Amino acid sequence: MEAEGKWQFHPERMVKEICYSALLIILCTVIIICQKLWLRPRRIRSVLQKQGINGPKPSFPYGNISEMQRIHHEPPESANAFDKWFYSVFPHFHAWKQQYGPIYLYSTGTKQHLYMENPEIIKDMNLHTSLDLGRPSYLTKTLKSMLGSGILRVNGLQWSFQRNLIGPDFFLSKIKNMVDLMEESAMEIIRKWEGRISENEDGIAEIVVEQDLKVLTADIISKACFGTSYGQGIEIFTKLATMQATLAKPSILFGFLNLRYLPTKENKLMWKLEKEVEKQILKVIHDREVDNKNGVNEKQKDMLQTILDGTANAINANSNGKDSFKLKRHEKNQLIIDICKNIYFAGSESSALAVSWTLLLLAIHPEWQERVRAEIVETFGNTLPLSINDMDKLRKLKVLTMVIQESLRLYGPAVTAARELLADMKLGELMLPKGINIWLFIPALHRDPNNWGPDVLEFKPERFAGGVSAACKYPQCYIPFGLGSRICLGQNLSMVEIKVVLSLFLSNFAFKPSPNYQHSPTYRMLLTPKYGIKLLVSKIDKTGA
Hints:
- The chain crosses the membrane at residues 20-39.
- Its cofactor is heme.
- It comes from Lupinus luteus (European yellow lupine).
- The structure is a single chain.
- It contains 22 helices and twelve strands.
- Helices cover 53% and strands 10% of the residues.
- By secondary structure, it is α+β, with helices and mostly antiparallel strands.
- Helix 9 (179-198) runs parallel beside helix 22, helix 14 (303-316) packs antiparallel against helix 15 (332-364) and helix 15 (332-364) packs across helix 18.
């Protein structure tokens, strides 16, 4: 007889307990999956449908993805050849707008989207300062390899910390110290173009302008923000451009199943590029830290130094309260790398494209090219080389400012603006549920005849003679630099840079469209020329001026 209280093994009981545990796990998993794939999307759609918002009916589990792939929206017969591209960028936006109006619902798998062209709601989005209106999480996860956890990607306190850290470096008081660097970099391109022109007997060279402008703006951002030249950072820019081309696919916006963790050929390339970019940026950081230690360039105070000092302070400071951002020591280097990635990416190509599209429009409209050139000569004098490091005189370039604003309206580098609601909130008259992704299609907002008038498709810089507020009925719908609290931090830097570069180019060269130019703007995360912007460039004769 076994001793009383001795443990006994009961195989049948153990098997039952294992089965019950497995069933419980399966049941919980099914509930979680149903909640994510079925119940949450249905709740979001139900909340909006009760407020009269409808859209194409989704099919489980892919939503409206197959329909988005099938839609090919043809431009109207009256559309100008230069405007037809607009209908080929995200054609489902146009097709559904015609059917469901300026606000409608659609879905990509489990993700629910709200297309928005309502000016009152957009106005509220512009005024909204809460951290609960952030970047769509599914997009930011996909862009992690390129942007890391930098300001363009993160939400909440981490975004707020980074904005407060680097924001002051984009104040006009700091930017005015960068103008000499802008002029220095622009003169290198001017000398290159003069060499190209001198090689031709007719004094005219066909130049793909955006290629050199990308080098120019990359050189400016490298010198101004990191104290290095484009030559030292060329590998960073080249690799970021390759990553951008890989990530700028419709599948990211469509929300297809994200396979970024699988060792596909494409993913392996992205992982390799990510490591190489981080290695190059880490070298820039290391060189600066060595210089600081050795007392080299002791007075240097560029953005890189601001980032180094700010992250060090975030580690050493006492972080009290739920709204404090706490940075751990081992996270410091990675955060610095990620912030630098974002500045390298955002600070170069968008400005290069803005200048490129503006030069194209001025080439097509020579009367405006002459007006801008005359204003530059009148403001700065017919000096050679043209020195423009006077911020007061730059501010007096009213005609040039109007031209830039109109160019950003018609061909702004930003194509979409997207926000995810991280909490329930009211925008305009709508109560919007947490988890909805709001999409703004910027070319459509900038071509709305109800806002801009019947001449909306025409290049008419004079519409901005009284500023943005007088140019249209709803100025809050003019968003070339984004909207709300997450508006582009570098918009002041970008505008000054565009003015400086265009002033130097237009005072030295005349531009005409090349007969080889093919107008085909396309989406590659930004609005880029598919076949390049080819212009005929000739030297301005200043002797007779």
